[in-house]
Design goal:
Nitrilase/N-carbamoyl-D-aminoacid amidohydrolase; 6-stranded mixed beta sheet; hydrolase
């Protein structure tokens, strides 16, 4: 199985319609891959907070239409990154996954919103459901950017049957070392592939880390971008590798759930 990560450049000066068309062209060039992944919020920029409301789309909006057509034209499973979704409950950071037919196969609303008391954390509502996409032979757990810092989310995805995680991101250059370490940790601790796709370029005065990477269930780096230029990262995945490793080194079976947590100050 071939996976392709498109580390697309997000530039404030490029009209969104042009970037959609350019993304579709890049996807078409990956015809022959099985799975293609785009970054987080590439239509608007993950740090372009002032544009979230004006750039928001309904789920059936122009990005969905363009990406559905692109998936069908290329004949690939497409994780189309995420959009600012406008819903009755508010705005969401919403990922869309399409089957090779162009059918929408999975929708994930980002659970952990970044910003603490500003930005995404106050402008968007939080998702509440873990989601997997039914990629044949390699069930795909969905997470987005800041989710990477919360290992319990990935444990839940493993319990839901995920053998790989797709993590689109708009991760900033300032914390690029965290990105790489956390992506490899999520692979090792869950014995699952990690497909972590970052954004290239600079938007909203925030240089992006780029550094997309594909990690094997063993933690081995299969492919890694050296920086934040626009590029496509590719690797061959063996759908059986995660299950084989879990059988050979069954660490996940030693999980102990429900261990009592002492009250603060009860120890010492």
């Amino acid at each position: 199985m071939r996976a392709s990560l498109i580390q697309i450049r997000v530039d404030d000066a490029e009209p969104v319609a042009e970037r959609r068309a350019r993304a579709a062209e890049l996807i078409a060039e990956e015809r022959g891959s099985d799975l293609v992944v785009l970054p987080e919020l590439w239509p608007v920029g993950a740090f372009a907070f002032d544009s979230f409301a004006s750039a928001a789309e309904e789920l059936d909006g122009p990005t969905r239409q363009a990406m559905s057509a692109a998936a069908a034209e290329a004949g690939v499973w497409l994780h189309a990154g995420s959009i600012v979704e406008r819903a009755a409950e508010g705005l969401f950071n919403t990922s869309l996954v399409f089957a090779p037919s162009g059918e929408l196969a999975a929708v994930y609303r980002k659970i952990h919103r970044f910003g603490f008391d500003k930005g995404e954390a106050v402008l968007m509502a939080a998702g509440e459901e873990l989601v997997t996409a039914p990629v044949p032979e390699l069930p795909l757990g969905l997470a987005t950017c800041y989710d990477l810092r919360f290992p319990e989310l990935f444990r839940g995805l493993v319990d839901a049957g995920a053998l790989a995680f797709a993590i689109p991101a708009g991760w900033p250059e300032a914390r690029h070392e965290h990105w790489t370490v956390l992506a490899r940790a999520r692979a090792v601790e869950n014995q699952a592939y990690v497909l972590a796709c970052g954004t290239a370029g600079t938007h909203a005065r925030t240089p992006q880390a780029g550094r997309s990477l594909i990690v094997a269930p063993s933690g081995e780096l299969l492919a890694e971008a050296a920086g934040a230029d626009e590029l496509v990262l590719r690797a061959e995945l063996d759908p059986k590798e995660a299950t084989t490793l879990r059988d050979r080194f069954p660490a996940l079976k030693d999980r102990r759930l429900g261990v009592a947590v002492p009250e603060p100050g009860a120890i010492g």
